[in-house]
Amino acid sequence: MIAPDVRGHGSSANATKPFRWADDLAALLRHLDAGPAVLVGLSMGGVIATDTVLEYPELVRAVVTCGAATGDFQYTDDWTREIQAEYARTLGAGDVEGWLDAFVRVVPGPYRGADDVDPRIARRLREMAFNSISKHTPGEKDWLVRVSDSWSRLPKIDVPVLTVNGTLEPPEMLDAAERLARTVPNGRAQTVEDTAHYPNMEKPEVFNKILLEFLSAL
């Protein structure tokens, strides 16, 4: 198993020139002679997985995406847009604690409160996010180049794709995941009851069972 850090996250250095997530992951897989690989990603990681299978199909054996669809998907619901606005405000002000407060609001999702979820989940996510956000400064240039035109290219994906999402995600996220699974030739969508953006952390036994069953069928 390979758990890569994205540029500017974890122990990886911040970007200093334009880059794409898919190019970085492809370069890593080739360096390790690890392809074709099964890509499993949550949230941003799920977008990276779909980006990579679109751009480098020869390096991918299968895809599991959780809490994500493709890089072209954009939230439009008021709850998510409010959180995104808070991200922008706190980042611009260099308010790390404020950004972290907004970040962990995603844990319960739009239908629950923080007290409805095991507090260890938010605490762990806050610790991990702090390590990454602290490496950045207000006004820092975003060098990321997005992969575009993803929806129209989905029918060309010729490997199995599984989407896994919590039922308490915003409805448009669930709709996008269903669309992804429906559009690729070999796609399937599953949900985990009573979880939101992090079903792998809220119900790890259920999530792992879904994942292992998918892998065993490849």
UniProtKB/TrEMBL annotation:
Extract the Pfam families matched here: Abhydrolase_6
**Gene3D superfamilies tied to this protein:** alpha/beta hydrolase
**Keyword vocabulary terms for this entry:** Hydrolase
Domain AB hydrolase-1 positions: 2-208
Alphabetized InterPro entries for the sequence: AB_hydrolase_1, AB_hydrolase_fold, AB_hydrolase_sf
GO MF terms on file? hydrolase activity
User: Which superkingdom?
Assistant: Bacteria
SUPFAM superfamilies in alphabetical order: alpha/beta-Hydrolases (SSF53474)
Q: Record's PANTHER family?
A: AB HYDROLASE SUPERFAMILY PROTEIN YCLE, MONOACYLGLYCEROL LIPASE
Protein name stated in the entry: Alpha/beta hydrolase
What is the protein's species of origin? Streptomyces longisporus
